[in-house]
Recover the amino acids of this structure.
């Protein structure tokens, strides 16, 4: 506790201490340990899953979960639109308005989740999941049933996850991270028990991966709204349909941006599965999983600044924003050196983590490091831009890049015979424009020189 308090005071001085910095830094420190524990829990979860399933079955599960992962962004961006509106309402002390926003968001996303599930049931008979996953039609694996079950729980989680967004928007990142940690640990303990019983059912693993976090999220939502978030507890009477315009105005653009990003990232597994088979997906996903460590490390620092930037911008405290961005850029430089060093110890870490003969090509590891470094750089400026809702440039660029990401991947993998490394090279090329455009837009906005499309 004393170490935590001392750390907050030191970093507060580093950021030129004020009340907002204190709030953000408390969020960072309170969530740091929780997120690190969640990371190691997730890594061990992969190891346990591989002990239960063979390489092919695990690759199938990763691909299915990646496809379903696309759908988490089919809230039409309402979640991020809500995040900005909720932050603004709280910053202005409008608690009744904040409660209306959270109630309306639950109602709208609930209806959207029902629509997604019904639409899936109508379309699913025309889909060949064995072909999509590049699995033999004679395979005994219950893939069709697994997809249906996973999608059902996805729709439930889509609604329940609003609580995490509301907590982050209110600078309670630590509490949001704690909910994720409880889900991860509960799932891990459940799968350890499954391993002990020597059950190797792909269907069972898929169901548990979705059911356990859903139950934890449901219980956490009930507790939070009865305690620290009691004043924002959603009710039917607080639903205000007129507020949906505010949620959709920027929300639809957020949706397209998110959809383009997640499509570019998660389509990787489909491309790898189609070109190289499910077993190669396992190696590819393990490399990505380990490089989620530096991504998580940077996101621990960055996540609370979305609401912080929005709060400062609405109050015209531009000096605070400039100071924070300078410090974050210097931190990014030091952090990037650590990522490069991580590349050289990667084989040792992989060997300790996965006690199976899995060889990760050095080029694949190197491209993963470059992608993380560039992505972290972009996130500094994108969080500011997102926090104030000036996302038109980001919207247009994301649409264009989503259209070329898969053709680029196919070109590098198939025609240049680069293997799965070509997928990551495609990702790097696709995010490079943001590494220049986002800082430039930030410069224009923070100096009040942004006009036309740069200010939309």
């Amino acid at each position: 506790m004393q170490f935590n308090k001392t750390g907050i005071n030191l970093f507060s001085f580093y950021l030129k201490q004020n009340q907002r910095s204190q709030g953000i830094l408390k969020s960072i420190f309170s969530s740091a340990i929780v997120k690190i524990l969640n990371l190691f829990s997730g890594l061990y979860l992969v190891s346990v899953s591989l002990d239960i399933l063979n390489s092919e079955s695990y690759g199938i599960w990763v691909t299915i979960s990646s496809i379903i992962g696309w759908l988490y962004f089919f809230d039409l961006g309402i979640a991020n639109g809500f995040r900005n509106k909720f932050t603004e309402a709280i910053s202005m002390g409008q608690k009744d308005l904040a409660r209306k926003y959270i109630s309306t968001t639950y109602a709208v996303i609930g209806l959207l989740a029902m629509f997604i599930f019904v639409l899936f049931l109508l379309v699913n008979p025309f889909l060949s999941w064995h072909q999509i996953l590049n699995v033999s039609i004679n395979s005994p694996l219950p893939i069709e049933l697994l997809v249906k079950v996973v999608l059902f729980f996805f729709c439930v989680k889509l609604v329940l996850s609003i609580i995490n967004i509301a907590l982050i928007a209110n600078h309670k990142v630590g509490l949001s991270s704690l909910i994720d940690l409880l889900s991860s640990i509960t799932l891990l303990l459940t799968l350890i028990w499954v391993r002990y019983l020597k059950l190797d059912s792909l269907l069972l693993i898929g169901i548990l991966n979705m059911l356990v976090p859903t139950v934890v999220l449901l219980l956490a939502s009930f507790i939070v709204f009865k305690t620290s978030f009691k004043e924002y507890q959603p009710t039917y009477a607080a639903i205000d349909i007129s507020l949906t315009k505010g949620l959709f105005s920027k929300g639809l653009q957020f949706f397209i941006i998110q959809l383009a990003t997640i499509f570019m990232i998660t389509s990787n597994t489909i491309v790898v599965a189609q070109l190289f088979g499910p077993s190669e997906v396992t190696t590819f996903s393990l490399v990505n999983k380990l490089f989620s460590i530096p991504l998580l490390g940077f996101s621990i620092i960055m996540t609370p600044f979305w609401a912080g930037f929005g709060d400062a911008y609405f109050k015209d405290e531009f000096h605070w924003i400039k100071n924070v961005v300078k410090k974050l850029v210097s931190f990014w430089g030091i952090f990037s050196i650590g990522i490069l060093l991580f590349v050289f110890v990667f084989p040792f870490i992989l060997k300790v983590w996965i006690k199976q003969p899995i060889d990760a090509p050095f080029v694949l590891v190197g491209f993963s490091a470059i992608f993380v470094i560039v992505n972290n750089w972009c996130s500094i400026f994108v969080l500011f831009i997102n926090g104030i809702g000036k996302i038109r440039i980001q919207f247009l660029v994301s649409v264009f890049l989503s259209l070329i990401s898969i053709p680029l991947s196919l070109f590098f993998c198939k025609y240049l015979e680069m293997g799965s490394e070509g997928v990551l090279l495609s990702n790097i090329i696709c995010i490079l424009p943001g590494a220049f455009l986002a800082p430039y837009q930030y410069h224009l906005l923070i100096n009040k020189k942004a006009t036309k499309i740069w200010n939309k």
Notes: Residues 1-16 have pLDDT under 50 and may be disordered. The CA atoms of residues 310 and 334 lie 26 Å apart.
